[in-house]
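quick one
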Amino acid sequence: MQDDSIIKVKNVNFHYGDFKALTDINMDFEKSRVTALIGPSGCGKSTLLRLLNRMNDLIDGTRVEGEVLFEDKNIYDSNVDPVEIRRRIGMVFQKPNPFPKSIFNNIIYGPRLLGVTGKGDLRDLAEQSLRQAVLWDEVKDILGQSAMMLSGGQQQRLCIARALAMKPDVLLMDEPTSALDPISTAKIEELIEGLKKHYTIIIVTHNMQQAARISDYTGFFYLGKLIEYNLTEKLFTTPDVKQTEDYITGRFG
Amino acid sequence: MSTIQMISEEEVIRSPSHRKAISNMKWRYLKQNLFLGVVRLSALIIAVSLGGFLFYIFVNGIGAISWDFLTLPPRDSMTKGGIMPAILGTFYLTTGAIIIALPLGVLSAVYLSEYAKQGPVVRIIRIGVNCLAGVPSIVFGLFGLGLFVVFLQFGSCILSGALTLGFLILPTIIGASEEALKAVPQTFREASLALGVSRWQTIFRIVLPNALPGILTGSILGVGRAAGETAPIMFTAAAFFTAKLPASIFDEVMALPYHIYVLATAGTHIEQTRPIQYGTALVLIALVLGIDLIAIIIRSYMRKKKGW
Ligand SMILES: Nc1ncnc2c1ncn2[C@@H]1O[C@H](COP(=O)(O)OP(=O)(O)OP(=O)(O)O)[C@@H](O)[C@H]1O
Ligand SMILES: [Mg+2]
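structure w/ adenosine-5'-triphosphate:
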């Protein structure tokens, strides 16, 4: 496939204990593009996403076969530090999960542990991240207030800003708008549009219009298998596989 | 208009199936009331006996309480004077126990519930901790005597007593800390780890600070127990009588519970010192309740702050 792919998933099988959640996945993610993962509930989208930044390591009894190449290095090699991988491949979760700290401290929590300590530097970084997440104007006067006071949509954008403050290369998003109202959803779609110049974004979504609106490529999963991986436009208009067509037209199951 | 509204209430009640339902319902109400009654009664019994007990101690003890009683050492073979050395001794012993047991207990809890792979080893450690919680306090006393007083040659002193009490409250602190750690939402850990923050930093920057109110409350409540224990300090720290105050952690001290025990059982003036015994008991209870009150205040203050 594309030569400028930043992540390459090669022959990956994934097991939760005895349960095989992903079967023989081959998938390349192109740099500075938005890739959407769609498919019915339980088909393994989140599992694949969490495989890309080694979040699945945190679950006992999981097993990975195959390779996940990030900039041509297998992130599952024994000499790779998962902490470094997670710094470079950020993640935004389905439910907004800010820390019970102030807005400002949420953003600078990670960078400060990385060694960014100058007051001015941290402030600049916070402003820059909040601007990228299109939240700055709403919170610039209340940076010291608890992040728990924000609305769900604002919290989710804060979580995006918090991830961006680590200066990742890739941003993984697992149904980032499924808990939000339409206006907040629109705002987040808009900011994703703005981010894709500088970041590679991989997003799981149940909302097919959303996938069609914001992504360049789409992968359709079913029962732990990648059924079709195509240009979004192609996948949603003239899919190559019958199963994909059944799913996107709602004639599934 | 629906037909249901047009049937009069009486008609409904007259139908046999409804009558049966209603009698069922009455029976259920009866059962519910019976059950609630039993629950209320148990609560009442506890409240009344606790209240009665406190009242009894208060009435018998309050006469002995005075400024001198709280600030002077005993005199005339402990038949007169105050209990200041015992108050101070109990304060030193419990504070020492906390200083020893809190870091140890919290770190053990972190290991058990955050770090170790859940498996047979952890299970065995947990069983061990639970067993420790059930060990009679006199056994702790003998253990402290054997290890700290004799083997390590600390002698009977604050250090030995605090260490012994520390071990006594360790299971409580580990239990409270594990509970508090478990109560921290998993999403906080995920959020931190997903940023590329290490496991240890996540534990120390996110998990522990958020668990702290729970850890402190649970631990402080455990301290109440330590303050009131006699058996563990009997051989390891407590002096029958010493008018001088301790100069270092290697000195013996008097302690409130031991003082009561001594006056009530071992003196030649048992009857004569009854008011002092009750007065000392009152002070001890006030101390323990005071400590618990502090715990409750900390908890409610921090709960208001945390917002989850
Ligand atoms: N921690 C786990 N332990 C065991 N099985 C799991 C675990 N997490 C997920 N699974 C199983 O793996 C399969 C894929 O789950 P996954 O969460 O990846 O699905 P998904 O496509 O993200 O679904 P959804 O759209 O509902 O989020 C499911 O059958 C699920 O039951
Ligand atoms: Mg999912």
